[in-house]
């Protein structure tokens, strides 16, 4: 069925409705699935009490999550994940629609999802389930809402704790509701591992892989001002609407160590690289910005001094991931580590750690282990004090850029890398 609708260049609704679907999808030989949005998951918090205090246990509730597309397509499917779950997760109903404002949907945009022909599904611990595809015309840079109903007590799994996006929880089954009656909000995603679109064979995904700087920490919530979002906007404006950008950052993440005292930081990058990069539908390129937490965390309240690493240790980890990507035909662009002088967390910055950062960046700029590099350090550093972020780009903590800094990072990327 088609309803009249009109979109501007980046897919923002100009009139109140859109194009949507039939119940089944027929794939042609020239079509392929590419992720238009995804997140990198972290394990569950250690106790049920913590999960409940974070609103991450659902019981006769609907969880409506807002996701932002990077490319469009003719059909859609949703990937649900129970990764790190300790028990089965029962989804009583699942729907997708186009978000208008807040937790509400554009009129007529909601569609029910099924899984192997069934409208409910039980996901075993650690498993991923893919919805049946539906004909559903989507556009770049629009908000979709994925609504999951949990009929029985279910602990969230596959959690992205710091989403920089408001998501909504309501009583009973409101999964098809245009106007969502919410009881609470949270700024985390769970269970919805990704949204894929069916598009032509020229489409591909770029995966920014990293820590909180890639995750958009300290950017303005609900505005999609992470540097991967700004990169996506640039690609769209340049007419490269076949290039998806799939943010795979996790705040606090490290290459070489887990974070046992704060599981929100996720497993080490070497461990999660297969799932969060290589397994992404349509991935062709990865931008690797990892290592600053490997330097900074040891000796703080976050990690013991025994986990201190050198620049050479970090370089070895980056090379490992680059080699694994190359084996799968994925091109890898190294990104220089941005300045962190003056970071407000005691012990995070030292002169020795700064020496290591500079050595890592020198290697990134000259190595043949990557297919190219992106100089994020140069894009945001203060010329008068190169160990620090330029004040206009600093969010205020001297580690994370603000909105303007994230835009400067995206502006530093040569789009010809993806041609």
Q: Can you walk me through this structure?
A:
This protein is α+β, with helices and mostly antiparallel strands and 419 residues long. It has 2 domains: 32-194; 202-418, Rossmann fold, CATH 3.40.50.1110. 20% of the residues lie in helices and 26% in strands. The strands form 6 sheets. Strands 7-6-11-3-13-14 form a 6-stranded antiparallel beta sheet, with no helix packed on it. Strands 16, 17, 18, 19, 20 and 21 form a 6-stranded parallel beta sheet that branches. Strand 20 (331-335), helix 7 (351-366) and strand 21 form a beta-alpha-beta unit. Helix 3 (227-237) crosses helix 9 (403-411), helix 4 (269-278) packs parallel to helix 6 and helix 6 (311-327) runs parallel beside helix 7. The radius of gyration is 21 Å and the shape is globular.
């Amino acid at each position: 069925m088609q309803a009249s609708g009109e979109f501007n260049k980046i897919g923002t609704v100009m009139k109140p409705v859109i194009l949507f679907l039939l119940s089944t999808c027929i794939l042609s030989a020239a079509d392929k699935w590419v992720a238009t949005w995804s997140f990198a998951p972290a394990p569950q918090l250690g106790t049920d009490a913590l999960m409940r205090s974070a609103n991450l246990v659902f019981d006769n509730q609907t969880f409506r999550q807002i996701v932002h597309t990077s490319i469009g397509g003719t059909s859609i499917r949703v990937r649900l994940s129970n990764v790190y779950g300790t028990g089965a997760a029962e989804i009583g109903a699942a729907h997708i629609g186009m978000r208008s404002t807040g937790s509400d949907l554009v009129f007529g945009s909601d569609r029910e999802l099924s899984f192997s022909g069934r409208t409910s599904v039980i996901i075993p611990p650690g498993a991923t389930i893919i919805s049946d595809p539906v004909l559903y015309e989507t556009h770049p840079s629009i908000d979709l809402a994925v609504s999951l109903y949990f009929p029985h007590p279910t602990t969230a799994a596959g959690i992205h704790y710091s989403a920089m996006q408001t998501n909504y929880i309501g009583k009973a089954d409101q999964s098809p509701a245009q106007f969502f009656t919410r009881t609470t909000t949270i700024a985390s995603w769970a269970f919805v591992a990704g949204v894929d679109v069916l598009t032509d064979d020229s489409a591909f995904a770029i995966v920014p892989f990293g820590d909180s700087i890639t995750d958009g920490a300290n950017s303005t919530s609900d505005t999609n001002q992470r540097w991967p979002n700004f990169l996506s906007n640039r690609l769209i404006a340049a007419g490269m609407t076949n290039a998806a950008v799939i943010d795979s950052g996790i705040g606090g993440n490290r290459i070489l160590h887990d974070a046992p005292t704060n599981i929100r930081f996720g497993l080490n990058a070497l461990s999660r690289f297969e799932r969060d990069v290589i397994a992404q539908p349509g991935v062709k390129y990865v931008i690797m910005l990892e290592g600053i937490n490997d330097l900074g965390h040891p000796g703080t309240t976050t990690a013991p001094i025994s986990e201190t690493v050198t620049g050479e240790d970090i370089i070895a980890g980056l090379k490992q991931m680059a080699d694994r990507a190359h084996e799968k035909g994925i091109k890898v662009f190294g990104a220089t580590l941005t300045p962190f002088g003056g970071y407000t967390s005691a012990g995070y910055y030292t002169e020795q750690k700064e020496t290591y950062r500079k050595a890592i960046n020198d290697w990134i700029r000259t190595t043949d282990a990557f297919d190219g590099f992106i100089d994020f350090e140069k894009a945001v550093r203060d010329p008068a004090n190169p160990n620090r972020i330029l004040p206009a780009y600093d969010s205020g903590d001297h580690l994370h850029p603000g909105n303007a800094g994230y835009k400067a990072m995206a502006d530093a990327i040569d789009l010809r890398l993806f041609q």
